[in-house]
Amino acid sequence: SEAGRHLSELHLGYESVEPYPLTITRLTAADPDYRVSKMRFGGKAGAWDKTTIRYNDSTAITGIPPEAQEYLLGSRSAIEWIIERYQVKVDGPSGIRNDPNDWVSERDNPTYILT
Question: Cβ(30)–Cβ(58) under 8 Å?
């Protein structure tokens, strides 16, 4: 019951927790672009660097602790789940476009997904 209480505190109070000190790195000299089309880990297929996320072509997030990969949602880490969900996708049969950037526009906060 003690573990359950602690877990519920984490789930309910996650917005008030001090964020982990990650580094957001600009990969280009161009003006910041906070739109996301498809995130991926750093490195290359077969040798992914899971301490880095390529947010888009101009931005990377670094300093992700290896322990972050241990929190699983089913068979994959929570970070892998977010990477898979926060991408622009079009459903083939219906043609419906799922674009996480729409939420950003609705909130008028260009860094919402990144931060």
Answer: yes
Q: What are the tens digits of pLDDT across the range 26-71? A: 998 888 889 999 999 999 999 999 999 999 999 999 999 999 999 8
pTM, entire model: 0.82
Outline where the chain has alpha helix (H). Answer: 2-12, 78-85, 101-107
| 3-class DSSP string for the chain | CHHHHHHHHHHHCHHHCCCCCCEEEECCCCCCCCCCCECEEEEECCEEEEEEEEEECCEEEECCCHHHHHCEECCEEHHHHHHHHCECEECCCCCCEECCHHHHHHHCCCCCCCC
